[in-house]
Amino acid sequence: MALSAEDPLAAFVALLKSEGRNGVLGLDCGAGSDGLRFVQSGIHFTGVDPSEENIHSARARGLEASVAQAVSLPFADAAFPSVWAVDALVGLPPEEWDDVVRELGRVTAPGAPIAVVLPDPVPQGRGEGFTVLRSPA
């Protein structure tokens, strides 16, 4: 499922609300800009990022956030009703993509939506389309 190119976060929030999902894990949350938008939309946000500086900034904005790597998340299986991971794969080498997507599937509830950008390994053909995957049911 592709998300609106105009405002993919708003489209994802609409999807979450239509499915009755009230929480999201934000992978590579940065300083928390997207997290604030989720919270303002009534969606509980938990962020992770590998950068301590980013986590400090996100917490300063009142967000729940912790330092973590995408391939080894410190959460129980099926802990989240959805995942927002649009920046998570872009900076990683292609050989790590499957491991990250598998880890996201582990920490989300069965059938949960996971928003990602699937990077094109050919830079000149790179598309920035957002895709919603589903965790295994």
Features:
137 residues, six-stranded mixed beta sheet, alpha/beta
Share of helical residues: 25-40%
Distance between the termini: 17 Å
Shape: globular
**Which class of secondary structure composition applies to the elements?**
alpha/beta
Number of helices: 4
Give me the strand/helix succession: HEHEHEEHEE
Strands ordered across the widest β-sheet: 3-2-1-4-5-6
How many beta-strand runs?
6
* Main sheet record: 6 strands, mixed
How large, in whole angstroms, is the Cα Rg? 14 Å
Rounded mean pLDDT is 88
User: Which residues sit in consecutive blocks of at least 5 with pLDDT less than 50?
Assistant: 122-127
Strand content: 15-25%
How do the strands and helices of this protein lay out in sequence?
Layout: H1 8-18, E1 23-27, H2 33-40, E2 44-49, H3 52-60, E3 64-67, E4 83-85, H4 94-107, E5 113-117, E6 130-134
Parallel strand pairs: 1-2, 1-4, 2-3, 4-5
Antiparallel strand pairs: 5-6
Question: What does this protein structure show overall?
Answer:
With 137 residues, the protein is of the alpha/beta class. 31% of the residues lie in helices and 20% in strands. It is built from four helices and six strands. The chain has helices at 8-18, 33-40, 52-60, 94-107; strands at residues 23-27, 44-49, 64-67, 83-85, 113-117, 130-134. The chain has a six-stranded mixed sheet with strand order 3-2-1-4-5-6, covered by helices on one side. The longest helix is centred in the C-terminal third of the chain and has 14 residues, at 94-107. The two termini are 17 Å apart. 36% of the residues are buried. The model is unreliable at 122-127 (pLDDT under 50).
